[in-house]
Amino acid sequence: MSRLSLDNVTVTLGDRKVLDRVSLNMEGGEFVGLLGPNGAGKSTLLRTITQEIPYEGAIRLGGKPLADLGAEGRARSLAYLPQIRDIAWPVSVTEIVALGRLPHCRPFAKMTMADGAIVADAMERMDITALAHRRATELSGGEMARVLMARVLAQETPIIIADEPAAGLDPAHQIALVETFAAIAKSGRTVIASLHELPLAARWCQRIILISQGKIVADGPASKVVTTENLSRVYGVEAMLMEDAQGLIVAPIRLTPRTS
């Protein structure tokens, strides 16, 4: 059910093609990092998958058109963390995270003990258990980001889609986040995350999709995609690349003229 496929997906906004005939297959068990500079089309691609933006082409989940699932079916299949995060309601952190269980509950039904355990586990993973009774509107930006990520985790969907989930997090929580994503993928689910943090993506993502100007430039393991040539061509940066037993180490060091 968790195989996600895109076939010639094109998005046109105004007179500009933001995505140009993108075709991808993503399987269960993958932690996919979506990389690319600002304006490359990363957020548009994620929002297209979640059916927020009209598109041409086909998007299928488990071989069936994703649009045919309806809003409820998609909420049980896809959990989405948008790039823009805000909590307007002065409710507790626990109540915000518990919203992730709504797709699995009958209307107006109370959460079960099993639901409560899932919420508690999501809060522990995001290191927000100590914030359980705080009002969500009183949190810092980083704390708010972790609360909303915990809500996504509590949704327990086969596919997680996160748009810049590491933005605003300190280094320890960034590493904890990608470790969590890697563990989720290892359990057989799919995680697709757009990231600007090249070192995190190169070290933790099993697969990197590099996008520029609405097109896929490279797709594969970090060692094949995060190269000095690709970083110079797409980002306009020179980087030091090293490798140890745990994976690739990336350190951007200076600007270079873009060759794309």
Automatic annotation (TrEMBL):
PROSITE patterns: ABC_TRANSPORTER_1, ABC_TRANSPORTER_2. Keywords: ATP-binding, Hydrolase, Nucleotide-binding, Translocase, Transport. Part of the ABC transporter complex HmuTUV involved in hemin import. Responsible for energy coupling to the transport system. It holds the Pfam family ABC_tran. GO terms for molecular function: ATP binding; ATP hydrolysis activity. Belongs to the ABC transporter superfamily. The gene is hmuV. InterPro entries: AAA+_ATPase (IPR003593), ABC_transporter-like_ATP-bd (IPR003439), ABC_transporter-like_CS (IPR017871), P-loop_NTPase (IPR027417). Residues 4-238 form the ABC transporter domain. This is Hemin import ATP-binding protein HmuV. It is an enzyme of class 3 (hydrolase). Its EC number is 3.6.3.-.
